[in-house]
Amino acid sequence: MKALAIDGATNTINFLAFNGDKKALLSLDLSMKQSEKLLPSIEFVLKEVDLEAKDLEFTAVSLGPGTFTGLRLAFAALKALSLSFQIPLYAISSLVMYAKPFLTLEGLILPAIDAKKNRFYTSFYRNGKKVFDEMDISAKDLVKKLDPEEKIFCVGPDAKMLSDALLAENAALNIQYLSIHVSAASFYLLEMAEELYKAKSPPLMDWEGPFYLRASEAEENKAGLKKEL
């Protein structure tokens, strides 16, 4: 496999390159400096596995939900490679990616990404399948959808944060948190993309972009200004 994956769904952006048995992973928590380090980071992981961009078989990106900047930068970089070298690009839901290693557990699986403003991006998985679509929701509203009798696992990069918030709303919940570092999730991103590539599934179309769930702060401010006018 000759492939490159970028996960920009959280503040930590991850780059993973594969070239046969060679693997290179770079995880950077740079906040506002992500755009400056994006291309050098891609070049670094490719060089580490002795791979040139033109030789990539496919690339993978986290679809979202997640941070606006990280998702936008990852999409822009990999779409540029896709257009330049005709490389198929596959996008995988961030929440699916973070839930993947825990789907064999018996109980309700809640992948968690901090959505700021006391809210979370999450969805429900049971018996290995999604049973509730992606949500942008507060712990107060989420707890109303949970059964205190069911075993609940909060998973993903912000699992503890969601677990604590839910228990603060209802201490009777049977809930545990199982964290996974976002860098480790990049391997699942590439694994799921490889399955799509091998199955010859249609790659991302040129016009398709990230899945945000929420309007950006700039869009919200613009909408608020229009209402005032």
Q: What is the N-to-C order of secondary-structure elements (H for helix, E for strand)?
A: EEEHEHEHEEEEHEHEHH
Strand content: 25-35%
Topology, number of strands: 11
Mean of residue pLDDT values: 90
Largest sheet: 6 strands, mixed
List the uncertain runs.
218-229
What is the molecular shape? elongated
Specify the helix fraction band: 25-40%
Distance between the termini: 55 Å
Count of helical segments? 7
Class of secondary structure makeup: alpha/beta
* Rg calculated over all Cα atoms: 18 Å
Question: Your description of this structure?
Answer:
The chain has 229 residues and is an alpha/beta fold. The protein has seven helices and eleven strands. It has helices spanning 34-48, 68-85, 94-99, 139-142, 159-169, 182-198, 217-228; strands spanning 2-7, 12-19, 22-29, 58-64, 89-93, 108-111, 113-116, 119-126, 129-138, 151-156, 174-179. Strands 6, 7, 8, 9, 10 and 11 form a six-stranded mixed sheet that branches. A five-stranded mixed sheet has the order 3-2-1-4-5, with helices on both faces. Strand 4, helix 2 and strand 5 form a beta-alpha-beta unit. The longest helix is centred in the middle third of the chain and has 18 residues, at 68-85. The N and C termini lie far apart (55 Å). Residues 218-229 have low confidence and may be disordered.
What layout of secondary structure does this protein have?
Elements: E1 2-7, E2 12-19, E3 22-29, H1 34-48, E4 58-64, H2 68-85, E5 89-93, H3 94-99, E6 108-111, E7 113-116, E8 119-126, E9 129-138, H4 139-142, E10 151-156, H5 159-169, E11 174-179, H6 182-198, H7 217-228
Parallel strand pairs: 1-4, 4-5, 6-10, 10-11
Antiparallel strand pairs: 1-2, 2-3, 6-8, 7-8, 8-9
Helix pairs in contact: 1-2
